[in-house]
Structure prediction request, 487 residues.
Amino acid sequence: MKNIKNKIVSVLFLVALVVAGCDFSDVNVDPNRIKSAPIAQQLTSLTVNVGFMAGSDLNRYSSLIMQQYSGQSVGATTQTQFFEQFQIIGTDLNNLWGTLYETILNDAENIIVDATASNSPHYSGVAKILKAYTYQTIVDTWGRVPYSETQKLAANVKPKFDSDEVIYTELIKLLDEGIAEVNAPTSAISPGTNSTIYPGAFSASRNNWIRFANTLKLRIFLHYSEKDPAFAKSRIDALVASGVPLMTANSDSFQMDFVNAANARNPIDQFETNRNGNLVVNAKIVNLMNSKTDPRRRFFFTQFPENSGLYVGAVAGAAPAPGIYSKFHTYLRGAITGTVYTGAAPIRMLTFAEYNFIRAEAALRFASPGSAQTFFQEGIRASMLSAGVAAADITAYLAANGALTGTTAQQLEQIINEKYIANYGVVVEPWTDFRRTGYPTLTLPSNAVVPYFPRSLFYPQSEIDNNPENAIQKSGMNVKVFWDTRP
Prediction:
C-alpha cells in the first residue's frame, strides 16, 4: 500500500506541474512527451490522469447539468453558477480537451506502441481498454470528434472529425482487442502496483480489467436503446449469452483510489478545499433521497443544520444563499480526520451498481436475460454497500422501495432514478441516461441561458482556432450525440 501511495503522490505532483506549465493550444503536439519513459511509469501516468479527469472539470459540468451539484457563491458570481445556468463556453473546455487528447490518449498510444514492440500484450491490452473508455466519454460529451487521425503528433496536427456513430463501432473492436491482449498467456512484462486502477499482481487484476471491458460494452450497447432498440437487445443478449466475465462485486468497480497525502487527494475534495462554498448539493437529488428516507444521505451529504438529521439542497437557478445547504460528504471526499476530509475517496467511473441497473433496464425493456426486479435490487444493494450503509438499513430500504411497479415506463423511471442516486459523482453517465430516457425528471433552472438542457458541449475554442479546416463550432448545445433521439 505504501508503494502504491508513493506512486500516486509522485505522479499527481508531476501532473500538477505539467498542467500548470503547459500550453494546450495545440492538442496534437506534445512538447512534454518523454519518449524514453519506462512503460511502467507511462501506465501510472495514464491511470492517474484518467481518474483525475473523471473527477475534475467534466465531472462538474455534467453533475451541475444533472442537478446533483449546485453552484453557489459567497460574493461575486462563480464559474459553478455560470455552469449551472448552462454558460459553458468553448474557452472553458480548452484544458479538458487538452487533458483528454494531449495527455491521456497520447499516454495510451505510447503504451500501445511500446508494448507491441516489446511483446508485452498485457500492457497494450490495458491501454486499449482505457483508450476505449476515454473515447466513450469524449463521444458522449461532444458527439463527432477526432479519432482516426489523432495521436500522430507532428505527422498530423489537424485531424479530421469522425462520425460519433462510427467511433462507437470502433470502440467495440478496440475493447475486443484489449480483452484478448490482457488475456494473452504470456507477456514480457505485465502491470502491477504501477497501475493505480486495479493495482496489484496482474494474475488477479487481469480479471478485473476483463470484467470492466465487457461491462463497458454493455454500457455502450445500452446507449442504443432509443436509436436502435433491436440492436441494443441483440448485442446485450449475445454478450450475456456468451458467458464472458462481467462484474460480480463492488471490488470489480472501475475506479481510481486516491490517498490522504499532499497532491494525491481526490480532485473533488481538492476543489472543495480550494474553492470552499462554490459547490453544494442540489435539491433534486437531496429531495429524491429525502422522499425515501434514504440511508445513503448521511454518507453523501452533510447535515443542515449541523447534527439535525436534515439534508437541504439548493434549487438550480435560485438566488445564491451561501451557508444554508448541505455539502459533499465522505462518499465523495473521504473520511474525516478531526474536522478535515482525507480526500481518500475513490473517483468512481463505472461501478458494479451501474452494471446491475444496466441489466435491470435491459431485462425490463428488451426481455434480456435475468430478472429486472432482481437486478434492480442488487443495484441498490451494491450502491449502499459501497457507501457504507448497514445491512439492516439496506433491508429496510429494499422492503419499502425495492419493488418495481406500474407500467414499463413507470418501472423504467424507478430504475433510472435509483441509478441516478447510485451514480452520484460519476462523470457524464447520469447525463447520458437523462438524454436517452428523459429520467430523472428535471426542471430547467429559472436563470438558464438557453431554453433546453444541453445535449452536448461546445467544442473547445483551442480546437476551433488551431484546426479550423475540420473543427466547426456547433450552433448550440442542443446538437445531439448520434444515440440521442429523444425530443
The chain has a mean pLDDT of 93. The chain has 19 helices and eight strands. The first helix runs from residue 2 to 21. The first strand starts at residue 69 and ends at 71.
